[in-house]
Glycerate kinase (Enemella evansiae), 359 residues
Amino acid sequence: MTVVIAPDSLKGSLDALPAAEALAAGWHRVRPDDDLLLLPQADGGEGTMAALAAGDERSAYRDAGTVTGPDGRGTPGRWLRLGNQDAVLELAQMSGLPLMRRPDPLGANCIGLGQVMAAALADGAQRILVGLGGSASTDGGAGILTGLGARLLDAGGNDLPPGGAALRNLARLDTSAMRRPDEVVVLTDVESPLLGAQGAAAVFGPQKGADADNISVLEQGLRRLAEVVGIDSDRPGMGAAGGAGYALAAVLGGRIEPGAPYIASASGLTEAVAGADVLITGEGKFDQTSLSGKVVGYALSLPGAPMKVVVAGAVATEVLGVDTFALADLAGSPAASFADPARWLAEAGARAAGQLRQT
């Protein structure tokens, strides 16, 4: 049998590659002669670099040195050079919410992403793929532009401080010294526009510590940024990662694409599933939202692999023709499965293989 193992990460528990390895170990205990192909996946957020690296043996990680973290402290920056010389960056790697000592919804920034992008450009990359997700800031991507050399100026010609609140005083965006890639591809599973009730501040601000007053301030700042840039902010995905999608698309000319299909194609998953006997995918929680643009739902939609299996920390929905395994059920409780996810993923892999052996 040919078995493709292509999970997303189990958020807050285990990254996609070790999750795939654990599932493979369990499967091999029962069916050691099967051919297993491990293709960890992502939807454009955390794990994007690892997913694309797994499908490209010529890829290599590059160190960008110390860059500005979301709260102003230095943090390591890195990016992935693919075999075709494209650069892959993850916003969460250097500008993610877990890097904050404490939430700062009005002042957090994504300058580091721009600095890592500049490092990739200095190393010769011209086509840049940016995975959005896990952002600490709601600054409309203004920090990215700053990291690339742009200046955000108030009416007196002074540079604005970092963060979304300061954007209310934006008078001019000076991009004369800003470095620009030839092409930017923006990968995300978020369809939110920049502004409004479904926008960056209203929907994602609370996740970053914003209360109602903060959301109002951030909305004003994002609106002012859109007025100064002068480009429509309603395109789906522009509100991703605190509005970083807006700066990448409106100022840098980036193309916003759904992350799961792009990564599935680029990593070889689409082709692999077409010729496989079994597909195993998974995530932290499998529910109805999983079927709408996320890794698991997209993987299940791919043609091929007559046996399809979903392994998740918790399972809250069923799909006809798909076998499901909940780690919480195998371990006896969510806490037990969370404490040792690799063990229970391996158990799920073994049970899935055992089920196949019985058929």
In short: The mean pLDDT is 95. The radius of gyration is 21 Å.
